[in-house]
Amino acid sequence: MKPQETVPTSLPGGVRASIADSLAAVDAELARRYPGDPGTRQPVHTVYVPADLLTATTVRDWGDQALAALDQHAPDADSFAAVLGLPGDLAEPVHTRVRAKLEREPVEDLRIDFEDGYGPRPDVEEDAAAARAASLLAAACAEGSAPPCAGIRMKCMEAAVRDRGIRTLDIFLTGLMAAGGLPDGLVLTLPKVTYAEQVTAMVRLCEEFEKARGLAPGRIGFEIQIETTQAILGSDGRATVARMIDAAEGRATGLHYGTFDYSASCGVGAAHQSMDHPVADHAKAVMQVAAAGTGVRLSDGSTNVLPVGPTERVHDAWRLHHRLVRRSLARAYYQGWDMHPGHLPTRYAAVYAFYREGLEAAAERLAAYVDRTAQGTGIADEPATAKALSGHLVRGLDCGALDGAEVERLTGLGRAELDALAGRAPAIP
């Protein structure tokens, strides 16, 4: 067909414009509700530490205790791989990287807990603890020893503890402002959310604090902890969690599954409360669908089986934790809770093995996609799959499972190109 020739059509010229006008509100609604992933690094875990146990060396102490556990119970790559059932080709790289991670950055996300892990205290005691938490976090940020993400879990919005939770949040944020401002990696967690109106109340708190301190609107975000059945299915038969995301007005950064509170609310006995129980899988599936496309991220819960005691018992706990983390990763829950330093070795082992064992296949498919051919792979990938493949590699790079040089060698792509394919913001050196 010559350039000047036109293809015949039948619809009147105004049809497209009319349809565009009729769908303008829908287009705006899609853009508002489903902006996509924020394009920033997501931590692989959240470490919860009761506020009264927080010290200036907590993060380093966790790393040192995790290294000591490895030294005592799996001192080399072969023994560690044997405990976890890692393939032989992954034994050395995983072990080496886990140790390096524990030395360099043992905690990716720290949550200073003023809720269940802290409990009810006299007001003067909790006031002091909140101020102290702000001071310690600000000092860690100033000296460069803070984890990439950190913040507090306040008490919930239920009547019995609401005022206390609000006061603790106010003291903590005020202390950070006095010490130089809110850190970039600040994360707040709102627990035991049952109604969307409780999320609306949290939004108002954030707005009022921003106004009081001259912060940009929307500066303060928060996670919503899913610990009650009403958060999944409301009395009206609707998925409450979707309404909660909407009620957050763009401030919700994550949905965190609360293993034990949620299981208990379903009547599950203590011996059977676990991240892989059917009630957990149902809740997390609803969370996943509700959050898809919204930019709100997901986190699995924790296990209460701690790797302590004799080596045999530690190994049993490690195997359980490793299996649960692997299971979460396979289900696109890329974050979870760790409640004990002894969980760090298996957290990172599971995460690193997950990304490393998929490295070559993902790299090959991504390179073929970029070359606009699938010859030799047997798979014709689409843009959405290429985004997932590059996202897999970027997550592996973020947490230390992969090296930039090896990824570039296998894909021919640098970090900036991977970020672009994954829809991510450029990585900060």
From TrEMBL:
One of its GO terms (molecular function) is catalytic activity. Its cofactor is Mg(2+). It holds the Pfam family DUF6986. Signal peptide: none annotated. GO terms for biological process: oxaloacetate metabolic process. InterPro entries: DUF6986 (IPR054255), Pyrv/PenolPyrv_kinase-like_dom (IPR015813), Pyrv_kinase-like_dom_sf (IPR040442). The keyword Transmembrane does not apply. Keywords: Magnesium, Metal-binding. Gene3D superfamilies: Phosphoenolpyruvate-binding domains. It comes from the Bacteria. This is Aldolase.
